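## Example pair
The file below holds two records. Each record gives the amino-acid sequence first, followed by its C-alpha cell line.
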Amino acid sequence: MKRSLNNLPALLSIAGLANVFLVWQGFNSPSSPMGDLPYAYQPWFDAFIGGGPWWGLDRPWVYPFPAFLPMVLAGLFAPQNLQIGWVVLRAIAMIAILVILVTARIENEEQRAARYRAAYLWLGFTLALGSVAISRIDSVSVLLAVLGALALVTGSQARAAIWFTVAGWIKIWPIALFLPLVAASKNWKRNLLAAAATSAAILLVGFLLGGNSSMFSFITGQTGRGIQFEAPLATPWVWLGVVGASDAGIYYNHSMMTFEVFGPLVADVAFWATLVQFGALAITGALILLAHRANANFGEIVAWGSLTGTLDLIVFNKVGSPQFISWLVIPIMIGVLYRVPNWRLPSMLILGITLLTQLVYPYLYGSLLELEDVPASALLLRNIGLIVALILANVMLTRLGAKRKEPVATV
C-alpha cells in the first residue's frame, strides 16, 4: 500500500528540502534570480544601519514603509549578508505557517486532506516559480496572505481582512483578495472596518516613528515609469524588436533598475495602464456582487473572484516582474481549501504559467534581452496563458452571477 504523505513529518521534510533546493538554485542559476537581496535590500539596510532613513517612512520609496521591516530583520539576523538572513528567516516562517495550515481547526478528514493538498500545492508552485519566489518582498506578502486564506476558510472573515490588509501594506496586490470580503459578504461592514482599523493602526505607528507624506509615496512612485518588457502589455513592442523594427525594442531604465520597452505609443499605453487596471478591478467587484446577489456559494465566489482580481493586477500591469506570478498561488489555495468544483483546470493553467515564468527568468533571460525569437516565444506563450486564465476566471465568475439560487433556510 502506498504510504500517504498527509502527515506532518513528511510535509516538514519535503518543505525543508524544497527550501534548501530553492536557495541552492538561487546561488547557481544565471541572471542572479536572488539579486534583489544583495544589490537592493542590502544597500537599503546598510544605509539604515549607518544612520540613514527608514525607507518609505520619511523618504519616498517604491514600497509601503512596513515592507522595510522584513529587510531590517534579515539584516539584523545576518548583518554582513542579508541574503542569508532573508532566506533562513523566510524558510522558517514558511514552515511555521505550513504547520498552522495543516493543524489549525480541522473538523474532519475531508478538510484535513484539503489542507494538505493546499500545503503541497504551495510548495509545488514555489518550486515551479523558482528562487525568485523566495527572494523578493512579494514572498512576505504571500506568507501573510496564506494566514488570511486560512482565517477565511475557518470562518473568521474579519481576521482574514486584517491579514490581507497587513499583507497589502507590504505589497498592494492583496486588495484582490480583500475585494470578495466586501462585495460578497453579509458582514462586509465589519470586514471593511477591520481593514480600516488595521490600516489606521499602521499609519499611526508610522507617524509616531516620524513618518510624513513619504508614507504614501508608493502610491504614485511608479506612475511615471514605462512598461517593463516582461509585462503582457509590452508584447507588441517586444515582437517589433524581435522582427527587427528600428523604432521599437528594449532598453535599460537606470532609475527603475529594470528593462522596459520603447516604441510608438508606449508612453500612451503606460499612462492609461493603471486606470485600465483599476477599471478591471471595478468590473471584477461588480461581478462578485452579482454572484453574491444570485446566492452563489461563498467559497466559489471568493475563489473565482480573488483569482480574477489578482489576474487583473498582473495582466493590466505595466510592471511584469516574475515574482508577481507568486501572487496567484493564494487564489488557487483558496479554491482548494473551499473544495471548489472544477478547480483543476485553473490550477493546471496557473501551474503552466508559473513553469514558463521560471523558464523565461532566469534561464532564457539573457537571450530574451537580445530579442531572440525562441525566448520571446516562451514569454509570449506565458503572457497568452495569463490572458486565457483571466478570460476563464471572468467567465466562471459571470456564470456564478447568472445562476440564481434560492437562499438556504436557516434556523
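Second record, same layout:
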Amino acid sequence: MKHPQLAFGTPRKLPKPTKLAGRVAVLDIAFAGASPTQGFDQVTAPFLRGLGDRLAVWVDHHDHELHPRYAEDPRFVLTTKAEHGACPELVTPELVARIGPVDTICCHSDFDGLASAAKWIRGGVEPYPGCDADARAVDTRLGVTGPIGERFDRALRGRPRDQALYGVVVRHLAEGLADGGLWATIDAAAAELAPVEAATRRVAERYVIDPAGVAIVHVEPGAPRWDKTLLLLLGQERARVSVVVEAEQVTVAARFDSGLNFLELLGLSGGMPTRVSVARAELPKLLRALRVTEP
C-alpha cells in the first residue's frame, strides 16, 4: 500500500498548504498561541484557509481557547493535555476508518508527532506494544519511557532539526520496527546527544534558587549546544518551577502534574499549561507573577 507523503511543522511554523498534496491529516500540531506576529490569526488561520476542504482531519491534544470554535466540525479531534498526555492515543482504528485515505500527513517533529503519523499509516495500530505509553511518558516527562521509546527520543533530541531523520523514524515505526538496519541511523543520531547533555549539566550548575521556589538560570549567547528540556528538568529537581532565560526568550516550566497553569498566570492562550515561552521583554512580568524577589 502506498504511504501518504510526510510534512513536518510546529504551531508557529507550518508548511505552505500549496506544498501539501491532496487530502491532509494534521497530527500533534497545536493551534498557535497568542503572539502579535505568530499567533493563531497569523499562522493557523491562513493554513486552515489554504487547505480548505482538503483538510481531512486535525488531531491534537494541546490546550487552546479556540478549540470550542471547531467543536461541531467532525474533522477536528481536539483535547487538552490533561485529557490526553500524548497524541498517538487519539489515533484509533475507528478514527482512521472514519476519515478515510489521506494523501499527506503533516505532523509535529517530536516522538509524539512522528509516532502519531506512523500509527495513522498503520490504520490506528501501535507500531510496537507500549508505543502510546512511551509517547505519553516522553511528552509529559512523567513515568518511565521504555527502551524503544527512549532510543527514538534520544535520536530526535540529538538531531532536533534533521528532517531526513524524521522520515527514518516514521518509516521504522510504520513498518513495526521490521527493518533492523534502520536502527543504525537512529542510534547514530542518539549518540550525538551525549555531549549536549554534558554541556546542559554544566549550564544547570548556574541555577539560582529564589525563596519563592523558582530555579532561574541565564544562558549566555554562544554557549555550547545544550538541551532546553533537560535544562528545565534539572531545574525542577531543585525547585517547583524552573526558568531558563535566553537572549531573545524566556521559558518557564513545572512538572506536568504540578497543578500550575502558566497560560492562565500570564494571560496567554494555546500551548502546554506547564511549559510556556515568552519574549525576553516579558521577564519582569513573569518574575512578578511567580513572586520572585530578585531578577
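Notes on the second record: The chain has eleven helices and ten strands. The chain has a mean pLDDT of 95.
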